[in-house]
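Private note to self, pasted from the team thread so I don't lose it. C-alpha coordinates:
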Protein backbone atom coordinates (compact mmCIF):
# COMPACT_ATOMS: atom_id res chain seq x y z
CA UNK A 1 0.00 0.00 0.00
CA UNK A 2 1.20 3.51 -0.84
CA UNK A 3 1.84 5.52 2.32
CA UNK A 4 1.18 8.79 0.47
CA UNK A 5 -2.16 8.18 -1.26
CA UNK A 6 -3.44 4.80 -0.03
CA UNK A 7 -3.34 3.00 -3.39
CA UNK A 8 -2.86 -0.78 -3.22
CA UNK A 9 -1.08 -3.29 -5.44
CA UNK A 10 -0.75 -7.10 -5.22
CA UNK A 11 3.05 -6.80 -5.50
CA UNK A 12 5.77 -4.33 -4.63
CA UNK A 13 6.34 -1.47 -7.04
CA UNK A 14 9.04 1.17 -7.02
CA UNK A 15 6.63 3.83 -8.26
CA UNK A 16 3.06 4.16 -7.00
CA UNK A 17 0.52 3.89 -9.85
CA UNK A 18 -1.86 6.23 -8.00
CA UNK A 19 0.28 9.29 -7.16
CA UNK A 20 3.55 8.54 -9.03
CA UNK A 21 5.58 8.73 -5.79
CA UNK A 22 8.74 6.66 -5.55
CA UNK A 23 9.53 4.20 -2.74
CA UNK A 24 6.22 4.68 -0.92
CA UNK A 25 4.82 1.15 -1.44
CA UNK A 26 5.05 -0.84 1.80
CA UNK A 27 3.82 -4.37 2.42
CA UNK A 28 0.89 -4.58 4.83
CA UNK A 29 -1.03 -7.57 6.13
CA UNK A 30 -4.76 -7.43 5.46
CA UNK A 31 -6.69 -8.08 8.68
CA UNK A 32 -9.69 -10.35 8.77
CA UNK A 33 -12.98 -8.57 8.23
CA UNK A 34 -14.86 -7.64 11.37
CA UNK A 35 -18.60 -7.64 11.93
CA UNK A 36 -20.23 -4.54 10.51
CA UNK A 37 -20.53 -1.86 13.17
CA UNK A 38 -23.85 -0.20 13.87
CA UNK A 39 -24.44 3.28 12.57
CA UNK A 40 -23.05 5.92 14.94
CA UNK A 41 -26.21 8.00 14.58
CA UNK A 42 -28.59 5.07 15.13
CA UNK A 43 -30.55 5.97 11.98
CA UNK A 44 -32.82 3.23 10.66
CA UNK A 45 -33.79 4.82 7.36
CA UNK A 46 -34.55 8.07 5.53
CA UNK A 47 -36.29 10.81 7.54
CA UNK A 48 -37.73 14.14 6.49
CA UNK A 49 -35.41 17.08 7.06
CA UNK A 50 -38.15 18.97 8.95
CA UNK A 51 -38.46 16.11 11.44
CA UNK A 52 -34.82 16.33 12.57
CA UNK A 53 -34.83 17.93 16.01
CA UNK A 54 -32.15 20.44 16.94
CA UNK A 55 -30.60 19.52 20.29
CA UNK A 56 -29.84 22.48 22.53
CA UNK A 57 -26.89 20.54 23.97
CA UNK A 58 -25.17 20.65 20.58
CA UNK A 59 -24.55 24.40 20.65
CA UNK A 60 -20.99 25.54 20.08
CA UNK A 61 -18.64 25.76 23.06
CA UNK A 62 -15.66 28.09 23.33
CA UNK A 63 -12.09 26.80 23.38
CA UNK A 64 -11.04 29.74 25.54
CA UNK A 65 -8.83 31.22 22.77
CA UNK A 66 -10.59 33.76 20.57
CA UNK A 67 -8.41 33.12 17.50
CA UNK A 68 -9.07 29.36 17.61
CA UNK A 69 -12.82 30.02 17.95
CA UNK A 70 -12.65 32.31 14.91
CA UNK A 71 -11.04 29.67 12.70
CA UNK A 72 -13.50 27.01 13.91
CA UNK A 73 -16.41 29.24 12.91
CA UNK A 74 -17.42 30.41 16.38
CA UNK A 75 -16.36 27.55 18.64
CA UNK A 76 -16.38 23.77 18.97
CA UNK A 77 -19.31 21.68 17.79
CA UNK A 78 -19.86 18.64 20.05
CA UNK A 79 -19.05 15.45 18.18
CA UNK A 80 -16.70 17.17 15.74
CA UNK A 81 -13.50 15.40 14.65
CA UNK A 82 -10.79 18.01 14.07
CA UNK A 83 -7.44 17.33 12.39
CA UNK A 84 -4.59 19.76 13.14
CA UNK A 85 -1.44 19.61 11.01
CA UNK A 86 1.78 21.58 10.92
CA UNK A 87 5.57 21.38 10.67
CA UNK A 88 7.51 19.73 13.51
CA UNK A 89 8.22 22.15 16.34
CA UNK A 90 5.81 24.83 15.08
CA UNK A 91 3.72 24.68 18.28
CA UNK A 92 0.85 22.23 17.62
CA UNK A 93 1.17 20.44 20.97
CA UNK A 94 1.61 23.73 22.81
CA UNK A 95 -1.55 25.18 21.27
CA UNK A 96 -3.60 22.06 21.98
CA UNK A 97 -2.36 21.88 25.58
CA UNK A 98 -3.41 25.49 26.07
CA UNK A 99 -6.86 24.73 24.63
CA UNK A 100 -7.19 21.66 26.87
CA UNK A 101 -6.14 23.65 29.95
CA UNK A 102 -8.64 26.44 29.31
CA UNK A 103 -11.52 24.08 28.50
CA UNK A 104 -10.86 22.04 31.67
CA UNK A 105 -12.17 24.97 33.72
CA UNK A 106 -15.73 23.98 32.78
CA UNK A 107 -15.46 20.18 32.70
CA UNK A 108 -13.10 17.20 32.38
CA UNK A 109 -10.75 17.23 29.39
CA UNK A 110 -8.58 14.30 28.29
CA UNK A 111 -5.14 14.88 26.75
CA UNK A 112 -3.92 11.60 25.26
CA UNK A 113 -0.21 11.78 24.50
CA UNK A 114 1.36 9.00 22.46
CA UNK A 115 4.63 10.81 21.75
CA UNK A 116 5.58 12.09 25.21
CA UNK A 117 5.34 10.74 28.72
CA UNK A 118 2.83 12.09 31.21
CA UNK A 119 5.68 13.75 33.12
CA UNK A 120 6.89 15.63 30.03
CA UNK A 121 3.37 16.86 29.37
CA UNK A 122 2.97 18.02 32.97
CA UNK A 123 6.25 19.97 32.82
CA UNK A 124 5.05 21.78 29.69
CA UNK A 125 1.68 22.49 31.29
CA UNK A 126 3.39 24.02 34.34
CA UNK A 127 5.44 26.26 32.06
CA UNK A 128 2.31 27.43 30.27
CA UNK A 129 0.52 28.10 33.58
CA UNK A 130 -3.20 27.96 34.16
CA UNK A 131 -5.53 25.80 36.23
CA UNK A 132 -5.22 22.10 35.29
CA UNK A 133 -7.50 20.72 38.02
CA UNK A 134 -9.86 18.88 35.61
CA UNK A 135 -7.26 17.99 32.95
CA UNK A 136 -6.51 14.27 32.64
CA UNK A 137 -3.52 12.68 30.91
CA UNK A 138 -3.32 9.34 29.13
CA UNK A 139 -0.01 8.11 27.74
CA UNK A 140 0.50 5.12 25.48
CA UNK A 141 -0.21 4.11 21.89
CA UNK A 142 -2.92 1.43 22.24
CA UNK A 143 -6.13 2.44 20.48
CA UNK A 144 -8.18 0.03 22.60
CA UNK A 145 -7.05 1.80 25.78
CA UNK A 146 -8.04 5.11 24.22
CA UNK A 147 -11.55 3.87 23.47
CA UNK A 148 -11.94 2.59 27.04
CA UNK A 149 -10.79 5.94 28.43
CA UNK A 150 -13.21 7.85 26.18
CA UNK A 151 -16.10 5.74 27.47
CA UNK A 152 -15.16 6.22 31.13
CA UNK A 153 -16.78 9.66 31.57
CA UNK A 154 -18.49 12.48 29.61
CA UNK A 155 -15.46 14.42 28.40
CA UNK A 156 -15.79 18.07 27.46
CA UNK A 157 -13.05 17.62 24.83
CA UNK A 158 -10.30 15.15 23.91
CA UNK A 159 -6.88 15.78 22.34
CA UNK A 160 -4.95 12.93 20.66
CA UNK A 161 -1.25 13.69 20.14
CA UNK A 162 -0.67 12.34 17.59
CA UNK A 163 -2.67 10.41 14.98
CA UNK A 164 0.35 8.69 13.40
CA UNK A 165 1.61 7.21 16.69
CA UNK A 166 -1.64 5.58 17.87
CA UNK A 167 -2.12 2.02 16.62
CA UNK A 168 -4.60 -0.85 16.73
CA UNK A 169 -2.85 -3.94 18.19
CA UNK A 170 -5.03 -6.23 16.06
CA UNK A 171 -3.43 -4.87 12.86
CA UNK A 172 0.04 -6.15 12.00
CA UNK A 173 1.09 -3.04 10.08
CA UNK A 174 3.34 -0.45 11.70
CA UNK A 175 1.99 2.70 13.39
CA UNK A 176 1.56 5.53 10.91
CA UNK A 177 0.87 3.22 7.97
CA UNK A 178 -2.19 3.65 5.77
CA UNK A 179 -4.12 0.84 7.43
CA UNK A 180 -3.39 2.05 10.95
CA UNK A 181 -4.15 5.71 10.27
CA UNK A 182 -7.41 4.87 8.52
CA UNK A 183 -8.52 2.51 11.29
CA UNK A 184 -7.60 4.88 14.13
CA UNK A 185 -9.38 7.83 12.52
CA UNK A 186 -12.51 5.81 11.71
CA UNK A 187 -12.89 4.37 15.20
CA UNK A 188 -12.29 7.70 16.91
CA UNK A 189 -14.85 9.27 14.58
CA UNK A 190 -17.47 6.73 15.70
CA UNK A 191 -16.75 7.55 19.34
CA UNK A 192 -16.96 11.30 18.69
CA UNK A 193 -20.32 11.05 16.91
CA UNK A 194 -21.94 8.56 19.28
CA UNK A 195 -20.86 10.33 22.51
CA UNK A 196 -20.93 13.92 21.13
CA UNK A 197 -17.32 14.51 22.21
CA UNK A 198 -15.19 16.95 20.18
CA UNK A 199 -11.86 15.26 19.43
CA UNK A 200 -8.68 17.00 18.22
CA UNK A 201 -6.25 14.85 16.22
CA UNK A 202 -2.72 16.21 15.80
CA UNK A 203 -1.22 15.02 12.50
CA UNK A 204 2.29 15.05 11.11
CA UNK A 205 3.11 16.67 7.77
CA UNK A 206 5.30 15.32 5.00
CA UNK A 207 8.05 17.10 3.07
CA UNK A 208 5.49 18.57 0.64
CA UNK A 209 3.73 20.30 3.54
CA UNK A 210 0.51 18.23 3.46
CA UNK A 211 -0.74 16.06 6.30
CA UNK A 212 0.99 12.70 6.23
CA UNK A 213 -1.01 9.57 5.54
CA UNK A 214 -3.75 8.88 3.00
CA UNK A 215 -5.99 11.68 1.82
CA UNK A 216 -8.97 9.68 3.03
CA UNK A 217 -8.25 10.92 6.55
CA UNK A 218 -8.89 14.52 5.52
CA UNK A 219 -12.17 13.46 3.91
CA UNK A 220 -13.15 11.57 7.05
CA UNK A 221 -12.77 14.37 9.58
CA UNK A 222 -15.08 17.37 9.97
CA UNK A 223 -12.44 20.12 10.25
CA UNK A 224 -8.88 20.36 8.92
CA UNK A 225 -6.64 23.05 10.41
CA UNK A 226 -3.07 23.89 9.41
CA UNK A 227 -0.67 25.58 11.81
CA UNK A 228 1.77 27.58 9.70
CA UNK A 229 4.68 29.92 10.19
CA UNK A 230 8.45 30.14 10.27
CA UNK A 231 10.02 29.02 13.53
CA UNK A 232 12.49 31.89 13.17
CA UNK A 233 9.66 34.45 13.14
CA UNK A 234 7.46 35.66 15.95
CA UNK A 235 4.08 34.99 14.36
CA UNK A 236 2.19 31.72 13.83
CA UNK A 237 -0.95 31.29 11.72
CA UNK A 238 -3.82 28.88 12.24
CA UNK A 239 -5.62 28.43 8.92
CA UNK A 240 -8.87 26.58 8.28
CA UNK A 241 -8.55 24.32 5.23
CA UNK A 242 -11.84 22.45 5.63
CA UNK A 243 -14.80 23.10 7.92
CA UNK A 244 -18.18 21.39 7.76
CA UNK A 245 -19.54 23.72 10.43
CA UNK A 246 -18.32 27.11 9.25
CA UNK A 247 -16.40 29.08 6.63
CA UNK A 248 -13.08 27.82 5.29
CA UNK A 249 -9.83 29.72 4.86
CA UNK A 250 -10.30 31.60 8.14
CA UNK A 251 -7.05 32.79 9.69
CA UNK A 252 -6.03 33.12 13.33
CA UNK A 253 -2.78 34.87 14.26
CA UNK A 254 -0.59 34.09 17.28
CA UNK A 255 2.80 35.10 18.54
CA UNK A 256 5.11 32.86 20.51
CA UNK A 257 5.90 34.03 24.05
CA UNK A 258 7.49 32.43 27.11
CA UNK A 259 4.07 31.51 28.46
CA UNK A 260 3.03 29.88 25.16
CA UNK A 261 1.05 31.07 22.16
CA UNK A 262 -0.72 34.40 22.61
CA UNK A 263 -3.58 35.43 20.32
CA UNK A 264 -3.03 38.59 18.26
CA UNK A 265 -6.36 40.41 18.19
CA UNK A 266 -5.13 43.33 16.03
CA UNK A 267 -2.94 41.67 13.37
CA UNK A 268 -2.70 44.72 11.09
CA UNK A 269 -1.11 46.90 13.75
CA UNK A 270 1.23 44.10 14.83
CA UNK A 271 2.41 43.32 11.29
CA UNK A 272 3.09 46.99 10.44
CA UNK A 273 4.75 47.89 13.76
CA UNK A 274 8.32 47.71 12.39
CA UNK A 275 7.69 49.05 8.90
CA UNK A 276 10.46 51.46 7.80
CA UNK A 277 9.38 54.98 6.88
CA UNK A 278 10.27 56.45 3.50
CA UNK A 279 12.10 53.34 2.29
CA UNK A 280 11.89 52.48 -1.44
CA UNK A 281 10.48 49.02 -2.09
CA UNK A 282 7.97 48.95 0.79
CA UNK A 283 4.20 48.88 0.20
CA UNK A 284 1.14 48.22 2.35
CA UNK A 285 -1.47 45.83 0.98
CA UNK A 286 -5.05 45.46 2.20
CA UNK A 287 -5.74 41.73 1.98
CA UNK A 288 -8.60 39.50 3.04
CA UNK A 289 -7.93 36.27 4.91
CA UNK A 290 -11.21 34.41 5.40
CA UNK A 291 -13.64 36.99 6.77
CA UNK A 292 -10.94 39.21 8.25
CA UNK A 293 -9.46 42.21 6.40
CA UNK A 294 -5.93 43.08 7.46
CA UNK A 295 -2.93 45.09 6.32
CA UNK A 296 0.43 43.52 5.53
CA UNK A 297 3.75 44.97 4.39
CA UNK A 298 5.16 43.80 1.05
CA UNK A 299 8.85 44.48 0.42
CA UNK A 300 10.74 44.20 -2.85
CA UNK A 301 14.40 44.48 -3.78
CA UNK A 302 15.57 44.85 -7.38
CA UNK A 303 19.30 44.64 -8.08
CA UNK A 304 21.59 44.04 -11.03
CA UNK A 305 21.98 40.35 -11.85
CA UNK A 306 25.56 39.03 -11.94
CA UNK A 307 24.53 35.94 -13.89
CA UNK A 308 21.19 34.29 -14.48
CA UNK A 309 18.52 36.61 -12.93
CA UNK A 310 17.09 35.25 -9.69
CA UNK A 311 13.49 35.39 -8.48
CA UNK A 312 13.17 34.78 -4.73
CA UNK A 313 9.67 35.01 -3.25
CA UNK A 314 8.56 34.63 0.38
CA UNK A 315 5.00 34.93 1.66
CA UNK A 316 3.13 34.66 -1.66
CA UNK A 317 2.96 32.03 -4.37
CA UNK A 318 5.97 32.10 -6.70
CA UNK A 319 3.75 31.70 -9.77
CA UNK A 320 1.72 34.72 -8.66
CA UNK A 321 4.92 36.77 -8.33
CA UNK A 322 6.07 35.66 -11.79
CA UNK A 323 2.77 36.88 -13.24
CA UNK A 324 3.21 40.28 -11.59
CA UNK A 325 6.73 40.66 -13.01
CA UNK A 326 5.56 39.66 -16.50
CA UNK A 327 2.77 42.25 -16.42
CA UNK A 328 5.23 44.92 -15.28
CA UNK A 329 7.60 44.00 -18.10
CA UNK A 330 4.95 43.98 -20.83
CA UNK A 331 2.47 46.64 -19.75
CA UNK A 332 4.37 48.70 -17.19
CA UNK A 333 7.53 49.46 -19.16
CA UNK A 334 9.76 48.05 -16.42
CA UNK A 335 12.91 46.30 -17.67
CA UNK A 336 13.40 43.40 -15.29
CA UNK A 337 14.78 40.64 -17.51
CA UNK A 338 18.36 41.41 -16.41
CA UNK A 339 17.58 42.08 -12.70
CA UNK A 340 17.46 40.00 -9.57
CA UNK A 341 14.06 40.45 -7.92
CA UNK A 342 13.29 39.57 -4.31
CA UNK A 343 9.73 39.85 -2.94
CA UNK A 344 8.79 39.24 0.68
CA UNK A 345 5.74 39.59 2.92
CA UNK A 346 7.19 40.58 6.29
CA UNK A 347 6.43 38.86 9.58
CA UNK A 348 6.45 35.33 8.16
CA UNK A 349 2.83 35.66 6.99
CA UNK A 350 1.56 33.62 4.03
CA UNK A 351 -0.87 35.60 1.85
CA UNK A 352 -3.19 33.81 -0.57
CA UNK A 353 -5.34 36.80 -1.57
CA UNK A 354 -4.73 37.81 -5.24
CA UNK A 355 -5.43 41.43 -4.27
CA UNK A 356 -1.80 41.62 -3.08
CA UNK A 357 -0.73 41.85 -6.76
CA UNK A 358 -0.87 45.65 -6.95
CA UNK A 359 1.23 46.11 -3.80
CA UNK A 360 3.84 43.66 -5.13
CA UNK A 361 3.98 45.49 -8.45
CA UNK A 362 4.43 48.96 -6.94
CA UNK A 363 6.99 47.68 -4.42
CA UNK A 364 9.07 46.33 -7.33
CA UNK A 365 8.75 49.61 -9.25
CA UNK A 366 9.63 51.60 -6.13
CA UNK A 367 12.76 49.55 -5.51
CA UNK A 368 13.85 49.71 -9.15
CA UNK A 369 13.44 53.48 -9.47
CA UNK A 370 14.36 54.46 -5.90
CA UNK A 371 11.10 56.40 -5.45
CA UNK A 372 9.51 55.54 -2.08
CA UNK A 373 5.79 54.87 -1.84
CA UNK A 374 4.19 57.41 0.55
CA UNK A 375 3.86 55.97 4.05
CA UNK A 376 0.10 56.59 4.23
CA UNK A 377 -0.74 54.76 0.99
CA UNK A 378 -2.54 51.42 0.94
CA UNK A 379 -3.00 49.26 -2.15
CA UNK A 380 -5.34 46.45 -3.17
CA UNK A 381 -6.09 44.99 -6.58
CA UNK A 382 -5.57 41.94 -8.73
CA UNK A 383 -3.54 42.27 -11.93
CA UNK A 384 -4.89 40.86 -15.19
CA UNK A 385 -2.68 39.62 -18.01
CA UNK A 386 -3.62 42.58 -20.19
CA UNK A 387 -2.44 45.10 -17.58
CA UNK A 388 -5.80 45.92 -15.99
CA UNK A 389 -6.25 46.19 -12.24
CA UNK A 390 -9.28 44.20 -11.14
CA UNK A 391 -11.47 45.02 -8.16
CA UNK A 392 -11.05 42.85 -5.08
CA UNK A 393 -14.10 41.56 -3.13
CA UNK A 394 -15.33 43.40 -0.03
CA UNK A 395 -13.31 46.50 -0.85
CA UNK A 396 -15.25 48.70 1.59
CA UNK A 397 -14.17 46.53 4.53
CA UNK A 398 -10.54 46.66 3.43
CA UNK A 399 -10.64 50.44 3.20
CA UNK A 400 -12.34 50.70 6.59
CA UNK A 401 -9.52 48.67 8.16
CA UNK A 402 -6.93 50.88 6.45
CA UNK A 403 -8.62 54.08 7.69
CA UNK A 404 -8.62 52.78 11.26
CA UNK A 405 -4.84 52.38 11.10
CA UNK A 406 -4.29 55.90 9.78
CA UNK A 407 -3.99 55.38 6.03
CA UNK A 408 -4.52 58.58 4.08
CA UNK A 409 -4.94 57.41 0.49
CA UNK A 410 -5.90 54.16 -1.20
CA UNK A 411 -4.83 53.16 -4.71
CA UNK A 412 -7.57 50.72 -5.64
CA UNK A 413 -9.94 50.03 -8.54
CA UNK A 414 -12.83 51.54 -6.64
CA UNK A 415 -15.06 54.58 -7.18
CA UNK A 416 -17.64 54.37 -4.39
CA UNK A 417 -17.84 56.05 -1.00
CA UNK A 418 -14.88 55.33 1.25
CA UNK A 419 -13.65 56.46 4.70
CA UNK A 420 -10.40 57.77 3.18
CA UNK A 421 -9.21 59.43 -0.03
CA UNK A 422 -9.28 57.05 -2.99
CA UNK A 423 -7.23 57.34 -6.16
CA UNK A 424 -8.95 54.98 -8.64
CA UNK A 425 -6.52 52.93 -10.71
CA UNK A 426 -7.78 50.68 -13.48
CA UNK A 427 -4.50 49.99 -15.33
CA UNK A 428 -1.04 49.17 -13.99
CA UNK A 429 0.26 52.25 -15.77
CA UNK A 430 -2.09 54.46 -13.71
CA UNK A 431 -0.61 53.13 -10.48
CA UNK A 432 2.99 53.58 -11.70
CA UNK A 433 2.34 57.15 -12.85
CA UNK A 434 0.85 57.94 -9.43
CA UNK A 435 4.34 57.57 -7.93
CA UNK A 436 5.46 60.66 -9.85
CA UNK A 437 8.01 61.37 -12.58
CA UNK A 438 10.60 59.04 -11.07
CA UNK A 439 8.16 56.21 -10.69
CA UNK A 440 6.93 56.42 -14.27
CA UNK A 441 10.44 56.34 -15.69
CA UNK A 442 10.52 53.93 -18.62
CA UNK A 443 6.76 53.83 -19.02
CA UNK A 444 6.86 53.50 -22.79
CA UNK A 445 5.25 50.36 -24.13
CA UNK A 446 7.67 47.78 -25.59
CA UNK A 447 7.66 47.30 -29.34
CA UNK A 448 5.34 44.71 -30.83
CA UNK A 449 8.23 42.42 -31.72
CA UNK A 450 9.74 42.69 -28.22
CA UNK A 451 7.59 40.14 -26.45
CA UNK A 452 10.29 38.42 -24.41
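Design output:
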Amino acid sequence: MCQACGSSSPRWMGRCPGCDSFNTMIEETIAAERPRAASASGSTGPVRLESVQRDAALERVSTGIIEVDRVLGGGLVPGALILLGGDPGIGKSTLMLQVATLMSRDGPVLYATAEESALQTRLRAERLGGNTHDLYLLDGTDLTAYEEALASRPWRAVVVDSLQTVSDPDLESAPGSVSQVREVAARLMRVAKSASIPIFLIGHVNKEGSIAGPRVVEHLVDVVLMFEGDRQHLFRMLRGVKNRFGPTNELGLFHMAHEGLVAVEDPSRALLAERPRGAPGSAVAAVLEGSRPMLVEVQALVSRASGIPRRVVTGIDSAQAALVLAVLERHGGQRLHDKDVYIKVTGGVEVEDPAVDLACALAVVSSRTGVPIPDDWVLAGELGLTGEVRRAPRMAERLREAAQLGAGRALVPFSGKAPLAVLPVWRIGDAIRALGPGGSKGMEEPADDDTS
